[in-house]
Amino acid sequence: MKIGASYYPEVMHESQWAQDLKNGKDIGLSVLRCGEFAWSALFSPDGKPTMDWARRFLDTAQTNGYEVVWCTPSATPPPYLLDRWPDLHATTSEGLTMPVGIRRHYCPSHAGYLDLCAETAGTLARELGTHPAIRGWQVDNELAGDGFTCWCDRCGAAFQKWLDQRYGTLDKLNAAWQTGVWSQVYTRWEQIPVPRSFKPAHTPALKLAWRRFKSDCWLNFFRRQAEALRAGGAKCVTTNFYNMTWDLPFDRWKWRPHLDAIGISNYHEAPVESAFELGVLQGPQPGEKPLWVLEQKAGQQASQNLLPDDPARLERHIACCAQAGAEYGIYWHLRQHAAGCEMEHGAVLRHDGRPTRIARAIGTAIKGSAAKAAKFAPAERLLVFSFNQFWANETRPPMGAAYDYRVEIEKNWFAPAQQLFGNIRIGNFGDAASGRSLILAPFFQLNEPGAGKTFRAALEGGATLVTTVDFLRLDDENNVRRIAPLAGMGDWAKVPELELYQLKAGTTVQGEIAGQPVTGGTFWAIPEVSGTTPALCREIGSGHCEGCAGPMALEFKVGRGRVIVALTALDSAGVQGLLQNL
Amino acid sequence: MKIGASYYPEVMHESQWAQDLKNGKDIGLSVLRCGEFAWSALFSPDGKPTMDWARRFLDTAQTNGYEVVWCTPSATPPPYLLDRWPDLHATTSEGLTMPVGIRRHYCPSHAGYLDLCAETAGTLARELGTHPAIRGWQVDNELAGDGFTCWCDRCGAAFQKWLDQRYGTLDKLNAAWQTGVWSQVYTRWEQIPVPRSFKPAHTPALKLAWRRFKSDCWLNFFRRQAEALRAGGAKCVTTNFYNMTWDLPFDRWKWRPHLDAIGISNYHEAPVESAFELGVLQGPQPGEKPLWVLEQKAGQQASQNLLPDDPARLERHIACCAQAGAEYGIYWHLRQHAAGCEMEHGAVLRHDGRPTRIARAIGTAIKGSAAKAAKFAPAERLLVFSFNQFWANETRPPMGAAYDYRVEIEKNWFAPAQQLFGNIRIGNFGDAASGRSLILAPFFQLNEPGAGKTFRAALEGGATLVTTVDFLRLDDENNVRRIAPLAGMGDWAKVPELELYQLKAGTTVQGEIAGQPVTGGTFWAIPEVSGTTPALCREIGSGHCEGCAGPMALEFKVGRGRVIVALTALDSAGVQGLLQNL
Amino acid sequence: MKIGASYYPEVMHESQWAQDLKNGKDIGLSVLRCGEFAWSALFSPDGKPTMDWARRFLDTAQTNGYEVVWCTPSATPPPYLLDRWPDLHATTSEGLTMPVGIRRHYCPSHAGYLDLCAETAGTLARELGTHPAIRGWQVDNELAGDGFTCWCDRCGAAFQKWLDQRYGTLDKLNAAWQTGVWSQVYTRWEQIPVPRSFKPAHTPALKLAWRRFKSDCWLNFFRRQAEALRAGGAKCVTTNFYNMTWDLPFDRWKWRPHLDAIGISNYHEAPVESAFELGVLQGPQPGEKPLWVLEQKAGQQASQNLLPDDPARLERHIACCAQAGAEYGIYWHLRQHAAGCEMEHGAVLRHDGRPTRIARAIGTAIKGSAAKAAKFAPAERLLVFSFNQFWANETRPPMGAAYDYRVEIEKNWFAPAQQLFGNIRIGNFGDAASGRSLILAPFFQLNEPGAGKTFRAALEGGATLVTTVDFLRLDDENNVRRIAPLAGMGDWAKVPELELYQLKAGTTVQGEIAGQPVTGGTFWAIPEVSGTTPALCREIGSGHCEGCAGPMALEFKVGRGRVIVALTALDSAGVQGLLQNL
Predict the structure, then answer these.
(1) Cα angle at C64 between C61 and C67, to 5 degrees?
(2) Taking the alpha carbons of A333, A334, A338, A339 in that order, is the dihedral positive or negative?
(3) Distance between CA atoms of residues B470 and B478, nearest Å
(4) Interface pTM, i.e. ipTM
(5) d(CA C66, CA A87)
(6) pTM as predicted
(7) Which listed residue, of B198, B330, B436, C163, carries a Cα 20 to 30 Å from A529's Cα?
(8) Quick check: A314 and A299 in contact, CB under 8 A?
(9) What kind and span of H or E run contains B33?
């Protein structure tokens, strides 16, 4: 793995470049990421490329032994562009117009801007792409980061068109969304609103659709530039996804085919968070595509202690990236900014450019761990993570105590699996179709098209599916299916008759699995007649709550395989118990 | 009392109706409330009634032995109506436009919508009103609930007109509101603003007037539909007031004459809150009008534990309704929604329709308590509760530590009265005029027209008035009268000379009444020369605060009656002390 | 010192004036402040003066031995003015339009309003200024108080013009602000935005410029009225600055030459806060201009306990004012309002006008302390306080743990200086030029024009400068200078080589100075090679943090003087240690 840093030659005196790059080289840096906010420097206001400085910088980089990832500058359209297109300003979820002077303040549905960004990307590829230091391309920067997507009426019109394509007719949309509730039946596409922030919330089906549309809308934004880059001769085009702790604006499984490398801004602190993030990036076939950590933390936001707050973090972080097979690990950033909103953000080098204890610590970490080899998880086990399900959870009222789908899976399913199996692959439900002996699909409520069929096929093939009792309880539109618990399995299995209860925050199921104490929450399903278990079913563990008693999980056969269903949202000890006793 | 549930046949498969109703019947339900959000199903976009399904449903209901309260659907104008009238959207107190896709998003001053709603109500009455299952009518649903009244400029214009009618001339309004403070003298009606949210707040007189106007504005909204319903042959027309814990948008005393039954959405948890709510609904003459609990809690918002969180709540709740003489107690709702913002809200039956422990517990509660008889409080005692005073407190800076007028009366006056006397009637000040031997009128600051005269008449007739030292200290416009404490009693009585102090939060008067420890707060009035009590006055209890000492209450004669004045905002022990030692 | 109170004759019955004034006189009041919200009463809607009542009131005041400060009423333009000029409404930092019905709801860049206010002020001076009771004039009331400055596009246009005057060309502005970061290079003045509230924040250079512009914009607003007052014959024109705990909208050093007296609304509770506020008001030459405390607290906001919450506060407050040489100490206010947003605010007299314990306590305090003499600090020591630096801190991301520049200086620098030296003068950096033997200039980061030269001159002259290691680390535009720590001192001194670390909240340097335990935070600079100290430098104290060790401060010679640099943000014990061991 190569370690590097972001650098902003366009705001540094040219005379400083060589020394800064040398200082980085001295501690072991060999990659740079540049240009993501440099529109003003790369083009004149009339659109002419002004890139001589960039070429000179690339020469300096090459001389110092650096590879470079160059970025398209669409995250920061200069003021003159918003002057030219007053309707380019993005709109917040509260309906406010985003001003110039910040970043990601453009509407991603603005046709003129998309054309210009594509043209800009093409010019960049042609002007700089032939330079031998260039190794790859990043489109924009943390697209839709900080939740800065646009909620304007133009996006609304694009949404209505997207809905038209998805549903074909309003009758189908009304039926799918069950708009009869609260009399929200639409009779013209134009009536369908942008679900901006409002209390009470908009209907969950509308909000899930908006999330899906927005992912597609941004994918289109990305693809316009990616295609122009490639047409200009660029190789290895990616973007840096925003960390999953912040937001999940995109269905990464759907984006994946369009990326040459998988890029990330990885600011995770906790090892398990970082491992899970990288696991999602690796996907079901680790190594299939290069994995680039395009940003990681060199120092704190607005503070950079004498020593990294956790002295071992740097090494651990690099080791984690290396183990995931990352090709690049790029710090943000090489030298602190002198101006702008991030001027006190930590970096490898301080404002004055001199290396300090931080730089020396980074150098030590690089030496200690950069050469570690990738260690991929075996293919036989898969943890299913669904961006659609994440959105479904986020856009619906909770069933029982609220939880964060990502956190719950990361902490209570991924972590014990990682502990037991070393590591586990992560994929979409479609990746469960074959070749897996163990499939974990907790909280897989949304009946995404083909999901049931896929899981069934895997089971018929002999796989073990571990899931939760809310399995397939929603249709694909975010509505509850009026069926008994687990009846989403249809005729695969004789499922037990269960009563499914929501548990409010603070109500827990106390129990044991294999003699170890475990806890459940959020929901609990118990056999209709308490105390008896359906034939064909094996009870796993036992628990009690509010005077009722029942098992913590059930196991039953499907085809040559078997299903293990957690009847409550188990803690990590509970999931560990299930996995240890398969 | 009959127990029932809300049901939404318009979003259920018709084939499910019979089973759902049978499941309800099996546990003892015999009333249904329907139709409050069903505009889309009841009318086609061109306004034609499409009610065959409703008639078929009413047949099913009747077959299963149910009575039905049907609702007008004005809470949810379908999207096409906001498409037709873009100016129908309501405006929030922050000035934002409420979107389609939620409920109560219409402006209640929109003439076209009011006409259409009246027409709709009349059609409903004619189309469904003759069905033998129909027992009564509810207009809209929780009118202005969640504070969702409208603050638009059209409402502002209606407000200006209402002010014109109230004051006649701007000179009178300016004098009444004392607009000289901060130079707010109006010279045209159009200058009077809608007091939308802003810091610092608008002047209290303006805000109280707005609250009064809004109550009248919504009463007009209600009456337009109620009259159309009655003209269409409907009997027993009501609406479901929103719970007093949430908001007090209406002067219920002023609404009362226009309601055939008094309806409520009663989601109170605490017995005393529920009893107070029902006491206000019963009013000064319990039994005068039917009392309908049109919504009560079948399950938690977004969670429904295995057992009701408080197993005794269901029985207690029913008993409380029964004791208040409620005719109906209707759960929200029979079966969980599959779609929309409330899709995970608890219900009698779960999504899949099967009865669970919850349903069984409700059945048990019904059996145990539904037949309990009404128990009305005797007429001799009255607790005065003023919606105008509530608004005055809400719209003014606090005098001393802030308190909630409703909570203070409920907790510290109603609760001890209930404990001592079994129960106590609640009414407006006008209801104190005659026939009462004991009148409690704490925190009655606002000199509402006729209030002084009424209390005096009661006193002359021999009644005992228990009040607080802030009695009549405000004029009817929400301004402080420049008079000595208690001088609002005018020439009725030789009132003692007092100094009235505001006490900030945390400053309390520690004292005793009849040997029992009691506490006061918010304000304390002490005789001008500390330690001496005016002749003619009896001191009650004693307290100290910040090195000063004085009585907790005073008693003095007025006519054949007497006044007992709490000199501080007593806790419940203090009020109990006063009432026990009358 | 004369003690007085604000009074509102325009909203009192004329018959009450004499008694109210007599009640005030009886406890020792002899000054009144009047008229700041009286536009409606002073002028008819067509602009004619209606001031007979005011003259009669001034007669009454004179008869009762009062001096009067009269105010211009521009804080409360009556509704008819906003009716006439709909564009007069101010805009909040969130972009909302401020309504009528509150105060300070006008735009300070509205040419028509500024003209009218000047005309109004001139008329007032001519109509009332000759009355013998008039002693001085206050313009408006707490200008821009509560952060109620205007963020409208007209202010934005004025800002762009102000920028044009400051920078001359866009190229210079772009270079000064380093707009290359995030591609914010402006190509037309009209592109420069008003930095309204938005996340992420606008660039610090823009925000500091806006703060500076706003101070000048309001100074212009003040001067227009002040000049008109003086042209009308008025003497002693001032305004009442808002307390520094609330906001620092103005560069008071820049305003000072335009004020005949220095006025303040001083609601501080803590003695040190009050002393610091008054120290800033006195400035580097106490006694140079009259100091008027135009508002101080007679009672609590919305509560007025039996006794002042801290019985000694009144006396202490008066003593503090007296020691600062204040000419007036004016309570807010004489008698509680009956209407408006402040109707329950405490006052000397209650609503009914009768004196209570509060009034008697104020009378006692006046007798006990009003005659105390002023006690000015000697000229030799100066504490530098910079409003520009305050804004720089407020508009930038923090370097290390966030702190409030005012609070930090007040608590950790002013307080120990006051304790050691009795008192200390406070001034702008320019006041350090000569005549000082000791200059404290902590956190003086901004390289304001002439700052370096001034400090150097003082040092060459033999002064001791005590500062912090962030000294001159910013340019005057709010950007970080790419120089080594302390290199802002240029060639004055051979400064030690230091590594400057940001410390996040919770990370502290534990150490000692002269054997006493002290603590540092926010940042720490340690010699590049830990453990050795540069020649020519004296180490002061020692500390440790995260396993590193170093001195707490350094001392080195500059010319005939010396610099003592705190290497971390010391607590008050640390600063005391430095000052005790000079």
Answers:
(1) 50
(2) negative
(3) 13
(4) 0.94
(5) 61
(6) 0.95
(7) B330
(8) no
(9) strand B31-34
